[in-house]
Each structure stands twice: as structure tokens, then as C-alpha cells.
Amino acid sequence: MGFVQDSDVKAGVILPEVEEENENDVEEGTVIALVMGQAGIAFWGTLTAEEKATHSGHIANFIDTIKSEIRKEPGIKIELPDDYEGDPAQILPWIRRMELYFLHKKLRDEVKMMTLALQKIKKGKGNCAQEWADMHIKTVLQYQVELRDWKTANGDQEPTTAQKAAFTNQPPFASWNTMANELLRFFQTTETQSKAIEKLNSIRQGTRDFEDYWMEFKVAATASQFDNAAIVNAFKETVNPGLGQKLVEMARLTISDLIQTWADRATEFERAKRDADC
């Protein structure tokens, strides 16, 4: 299947339709999240019904009281969090706010959860957060278009897990938890300049596509505050040797133009190689 067309996007292929919460229908998990946090959710989930009713007495009573108060006050809502804009110190709180929103809206569809979160990731230093999200949104779009086409061809029935696994296009992450862990790994590790420099020295393209490597390299390079010459040297050391040699053979350019030009040319090289292998 080819790239997603503009008409697919305009048709609202992937935008998750979140049903409005019945304001008098308060899910226990939402209250536990508000009162006890993620650790509380995990602990509460291990208890039997009897233990929940009796454990420390006041916990169950406190939760019941809050649920009762929420029902009395229908105006209480948990709003969709603000956009995440690449601040490493804010990534974990933002993830927690997204998870609380998912609980409140009773969202259980992993792809819808990931799609909604990706649409809330914007801007960032050097536009890195936006570019990271856009890269994965493209993958989600391709998956959703294939899912739509499959359902159209099969009487609008929902495919089984096995049938979805056979799709040519797959979601960018196996689950919301996988995506959340990748967000933490990708953004939180560049919280300080020293960590960014350490990361820049350890990044390797390996078996990854260049575009995936480039996004990680760009985040670390921006946070490292290295000058262009140092970033060019780091780039030559961390990109795959065969690809690096082709880049070295290019005509000399000014350093200010070199980094982005190399990125564009590297992507062209890899695409040409993939086409030749097909």
C-alpha cells in the first residue's frame, strides 16, 4: 500500500472518536488514579473484592466518598492535557495526565490511545518533538487506512488479532505502555547537557532505518550544545560505515549546510538501496 493521500486524512481516518463520559458513571479506576496514583492502581488491582471492602477500612470508604461527591457534581471533568512540547522534565507528568484522561474516558483501544497522544506532541527545541510525532503519525495513518479498507471489504466487521497481525502496515508501537516507555527513553535521557553528550557518543544507527536513527541523533545533538563541527564529527562516527563513506564522497559544503544535506542524502541512499533489493 502506498503513502496516505490527503483525502484519507481529511476523511478522518485515524482521528479517535472518544465517546463523552456519562458524568454520573464514575469508573473506580479513575478515582483510584486520582487518589492513589499508578502505584495505587497496581496495588488495588491485586486485592479481592473482600479485601477491597475491608483493607484498612478508610481507603475503601474514602474512595466511595469521592465517587459519591463526583456524582453529586456533574460539572467535574478531566480535560485532555495540554500539548507536550519536548521539555524532558515534563514528559513523565504529561504521560501520567494522558493516562488519567484515558481512564476517565474509558479508552481501551491501544491504537486510539497512541493516536490521541501523538496528536498532542508538538514543536520542541529544533522542532524535534513535532518531527518525532509526525514520523509515527505517518505509520498510524498507513495502518488505519489498511484497517479501513479491510473492514470495507469484509462487511464492516472487526478483524481478529491474528488478521490485524497479517496487515502490511502495523502501528508504530505494540501498546500504549510501549509508546510511553519509548517517550521516556527518547526525551527524558536528554534532560541535561552531560547526558546528551553521553547519549550522542553512544548512539549507533545499527540495523535501524536512517530516519529513525536521525531523529534520535538530532535530539541528542541539539541538547548537547556542540558546535556544528563537533556534531558533524559525531554524525560520521555514529552513522553506518557504508553510508558514511558515501557521504564523505560528496562535494565539500559549508558546515552550516552539511548536516541537513547529509541527512537528506542519507535518506536517498537508503531508499535507493531498498528499491534495488526489492
Automatic annotation (TrEMBL):
InterPro entries recorded for this chain? Answer: Retrotrans_gag_dom
Against Pfam families, the record matches this protein to:
Retrotrans_gag
Domain called Retrotransposon gag: residue spans: 170-239
Task: Please state what the protein is called.
Answer: Retrotransposon gag domain-containing protein
Q: Which organism is it from?
A: Sphagnurus paluster
> What's the source species' lineage?
Eukaryota, Fungi, Dikarya, Basidiomycota, Agaricomycotina
